[in-house]
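Below: protein 1.
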Amino acid sequence: MNQQKSLFRRVQLWMYGRKQNALSICKKIGYLDDKRGKRVARHKKPNKKINSKKRLMDFEENHNHQEKEQTNCMSSIIFLIFLYLLQGVPLGLVMGSLPYLLQPYLSFTSLGFFSLASYPYSLKLFWSPIVDTVYNEKWGRRKSWVIPVQGSIGLCLLWISYNIQQWFQEVAESLKQITVVFFILVFLCATQDIAVDGWALSLLSEENLIYASTAQSIGLNTGYFLSFTVFLAFNSSEFSNKYFRSVKKDFGLISLSGYMRFWGWVFIISTMFVSFFQDEPRKKYSSVSIKNAYLIIFNIIKLRNVRTFMFVHLIAKIGSSASEATLNLKLLEKGLKKENLSIAILINFPFELIFGYYAAKWSSTSRKLLPWIYAYIGRLIAAFIGILIVYKFPHDGKINTEYFYIIIFQNMISSFMNTIQFISINAFHTRIADPIIGGTYMTLLNTVSNLGGTWPRYFVFESIDFFTKSYCSKNIANKCITDEQVSFCKELNGHCIKKVDGYYITNLLSIFIGFLLFFLFIKPSVEKLQRLPLRAWKISVIDSVFF
């Protein structure tokens, strides 16, 4: 019993000593004085007039500050949407309209060669450090690139507009020249995208950075929509004669050369506006050499999580790439009119903007990649519906209302899932990207994401012709695959007969690989990556490089 009392006493003395030590430390740092002052102040009678007046002034000041921040944020978002819209216009031509305009004259293999013109947008990582590090301090870090590049795009569009008609008269002979010219145009658009991505990080506050991906989605989709859907519709003679003309003509309301000339001047005028009226936030940027900028990219890629994420990007669109690249082209080949296809996409566009808004809301949760996972399955389902649509296409080429509604439905599903994935993945990029590196981190992730959707296209077009088995009705030895073989068959007054259509084999194989990759690697990897803390995405060499 005495031993227990002695032990209890020792514990009391030890706790008392701990308390005294804590009190002495608090006195040294002034904590108790602050607490005592608060207790004294609590017993004082407050001056109600002074306090109420002060509270009113503080409320008005905070309210005015919030209104100013909201106004600045909204104007910045609108400005970013405008810049991204300008990017979307040339991209909509290269990746949207031109393949449809070239389709009657070229085989899928030749269309695959033209698809190489879109590759610079997926390879911009290789020159993004130059855009991020080389700039004129007087103009600003981003304006130093946006102004000359945007002006160059305008001049390039004007030059192409005066030559495009001549190239289209001999498409097969001019294919290489057309591909090179639009390759340069996409290269300029990709360079502008690097600068605008970095500008978005400095224009928007930290809590509003999630809207950078929304601005990008709305701007790019709107520009793409104008150059793809709207242009194709008004370029079609059937659409123009049906809805806008009393006397039929064999050409559309808008020509390709006229459309490109119009946007060439828009680019030049907008460049002058950005140069004189849009200010860039003046910040003192750390000096970094191009060599160190590439070193940063190398160190980012060295992170195991980043390498896993990059590999997910590279394989994530294999399952849906075949359908998205060839479905509409195949429908046109089957006999669907361009104006009907344009109307289907036109109906889909306003829903796409609404989808983008709700996708941004959905992606604002802590698990930003959860919508991306669900949308992945949705894109594969939409791809399979696309196969059924092509298979059930009427042999006489006359589509009824129900079939047209199914085309619209498939376009809406595919577009909805695409928008969800785009905004979700860009919101995640914005979250994990280190602002100290500027646009380099974002450009790395966006480049790999774009490359994942671009690199399969060439192989998709090649695979369709590879798996296709056909022959000429006038010459069985003629396989009717290349442009020359098809032209030779027509010269014999024959037509190509397909025994096996490689479209179905390529698309089914693509979807099967997509499901296999999803359950074996993509889903478990993405779920793991989104649970990682932000420090897992930082590199340790930033201080040594910048400071």
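Below: protein 2.
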Amino acid sequence: MEHFTSKGMEVKVISMDDYYWRVDDPHHVRNPESGFPNFDCYSAVDWESLIEDVRRWSSHEPVGVRSSKPNRCLFVEGIFVLECETLFQMFDVSIFLKLNYETMLERRLLREYDPPDPPNYFKDYVWPAYCKSLENVSSRAGRTIYVECSGLSFEDMFRRVLGCINDKLGIRD
């Protein structure tokens, strides 16, 4: 984010993870055997609140700015955000990070979840949800940039994504 703030831009990150329904919320689809909520499906997210927060942030129009360069940058991240048509239409740039199974599992294991994933959750829920999301978003290929990130370090992935954003927004170092 420092890259953008150093260019005079106001930057905000909204994470889809902050909009999951609470663990005990009846909106969740649950595993019939364990009762564990499936956080890796579209219905696990409070889309209305997420969309409203993006709208509120986006509607702020800066006063006195006479530059044609963008001066605000909102990053909305999460596995399903490009599947939400309302959000997708609000984005100037959409990027889908492509990962192979091994890289995604490796990154998943670095994170801590509350509640913790039950056994086989990645294999049974996370990976299939990612594959389905990739398939669903493929119809938007003309407006979505796909960035292959398998095997990349976080720093290399960031540089690759940053390059795509810079190109799309016409930002030069």
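The chain has a mean pLDDT of 88.
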